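Reference record
================
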Amino acid sequence: MTDVATEETSGVEAAAARWFRDHWDPEIELGEWWQRLAAGGWGFPTWPEDRYGQGVDAHDAPLVNKARRAAGALGPPAGIAANLAGPTILAHGTEAQKDRFLPGIVAGEVWCQLFSEPGSGSDLASLQTRAERDGEQWIVNGQKVWTSGAQFARYGILVARTNPEAPKHQGLTYFVIDMDQPGIEIRPIKEMTGRSIFNEVFLTDAVVPDENRIDALGSGWAVALTTLANERTMLSAGSFGSSGSGMALESPELQARVGDLVRDVAPSEGSMASGVVALLEVLFNQYGRTDDPIFRQEYATVYSLLEIARFTDLRVKGAIEKGGRPGPEVSVGKLAASHLLRTLRETMFRVCGPETTLWGDDAPLGGRMHDIGFASYLISIGGGTDQIQRNIIGERVLGLPRELRVDKGVAFNELLVGTQDRPA
């Protein structure tokens, strides 16, 4: 690193440290704190300066998180709104759309993602939800599934088919849809965790104004790729513990005292791995495993995986911030997250033994081991399955032959006819 680059890097951390020192107040309400973060540009530092950011390089963003944690301050809103919708609107939205949607996102609005369908999960481009134009609005009919937080969401990012006569990747358009309308029915799905994070969403003559269309008609696949790249980055191993605030899947209590919401987790030199590393340190101390050479080696393995993933994550963010679209590194990061969570799960289960099956206040770390165990299965599916990520890496990195595609260049409605006419 050059002297100039070193000075710029240290300058970012120093500026962030000064701002958090002068503005953090644990006594104020959560909503007021998020408004301060947005106005100061330190909640989303890589965003443009005129759009609630500081224009900080993605490689320096961890320094801002380090300064925030050192001040004991809560992080910005997290989840689909901030991590997926915001960057997508910044990349593809009009200035008017940025003016309308970004203020709510940085203030903590909950959004959801209306992508997956019962018959099109891994093959997203085969989705069948239709949007038909009616003057200056679109009428949407179809079904979505595995929609996180839909029951709390103010808006949804929606991909729908607007031209069934075009090939499946070319007939899609991207919208922002108001979730509070009669044409949308939400049915929570009960999960094996006992929670209902995911939902089925039924759209029956739901309405979207054309001014909520993101980018050009028929460009939905390209816009969706931006969202998916950010989703896989959000779910990647390199992003663990990076935001400092939880995944926003329900409406936040904006009147809550912000100091009561800060997690008491000791940072590890500002690394994105700090949360997981601190978790392991607590467990090893609690169960007397700090001097066990086998567990120390497992600790080193988890830490190494986190650091490798962190650098991959920085490459992804760097490509996005420069206006490009990241390549297969997002798949590498997502696949690394699945591997890391399984490794973490096995290490923690060996440390805690049968107590890892407990859930509640009396369980180890309040039941977080139980949650990590279940999450290790969830993350291998969400954001594109492990199998899909391996296909992408195999084809785009290793140069292996691509799978045969009989649908290339074929109108989507012809594919549907062909499917219906096939003998059982």
Observations:
- Residues 1-6, 240-247, 264-272, 418-424 have pLDDT under 50 and may be disordered.
- The beta strands are 111-114, 130-134, 137-144, 155-161, 172-178, 184-188, 199-209, 213-214.
- The CA atoms of residues 177 and 273 lie 35 Å apart.
